Amino acid sequence: QVQLEESGGGLVQAGGSLTLTCVASARAFSNYAMAWFRQAPGKEREFVAAISPTGGTYIPDSRFAASRDNAKNTVYLQMNSLKHKETAVYYCALSPVVTTHESQYTSWGQGTQVPVSS
Q1: Rounded CA gap, 13 and 4, in Å?
Q2: Could you report how far apart the first and last alpha carbons of the chain are, in Å?
Q3: Which string of b and e fits 22-38 if b means at least 16 CB within 10 Å?
Q4: Cβ contacts of residue 62 below 8 Å, gap of 6+?
Q5: What are phi and psi of 102, to 5 degrees?
Q6: Which residues have C-beta within 8 Å of that of residue 76, sequence separation ≥ 6?
Q7: If pLDDT is split at 50, 70 and 90, which confidence band does 26 have?
Q8: How far is Cα 56 from Cα 59, in angstroms, rounded to an integer?
Q9: Do 111 and 8 form a contact (C-beta atoms < 8 A)?
Q10: CA dist 38 → 28, 48, 51, 101, 117 (Å)
Q11: pLDDT category, 94, cuts 50, 70, 90?
């Protein structure tokens, strides 16, 4: 069973930056796509970024960047110019395919809280 563990969350001021890390226990990690999602209080979980097994990314918001280190079974999410409304729990997830659809992600981390002060 794959385990994912996020870290790096914490209080950040609006306009600030933060980098999240996700470490996976998966064998053959380099075969899997990874993604970041977030869920704000009272809202549905939403897609943030996807990264292919070879490091290609799909990130709708240009303030964010994602990368991976397959040798360390780790993915990163760099977030810049954060806004108060982006206060959320941020999750990483693993999938056999690169997709924005959370239903296709088979393993999820517990999430890390990112409060953004106004």
Answers
A1: 27
A2: 39
A3: bbbebeebeebbbbbbb
A4: none
A5: -65, -25
A6: 19, 20, 21, 22, 66, 67, 68, 69
A7: confident
A8: 10
A9: no
A10: 25, 7, 15, 13, 17
A11: very high
Rounded distance between C-alpha atoms, residue 97 and residue 90, angstroms: 20
- Tell me 43's DSSP state: S
CB distance 26 to 9 below 8 Å: no
Which residue reads 């994912």 in tokens? 4
Q: Are 111 and 90 in contact (CB under 8 A)?
A: yes
Sole residue written with tokens 């980098």: 19
Residue 39 has pLDDT above 90, yes or no: yes
Q: Coil, helix or strand for 103?
A: helix
Q: What is the dihedral of CA 59, 65, 70, 75, to 10 degrees?
A: -90
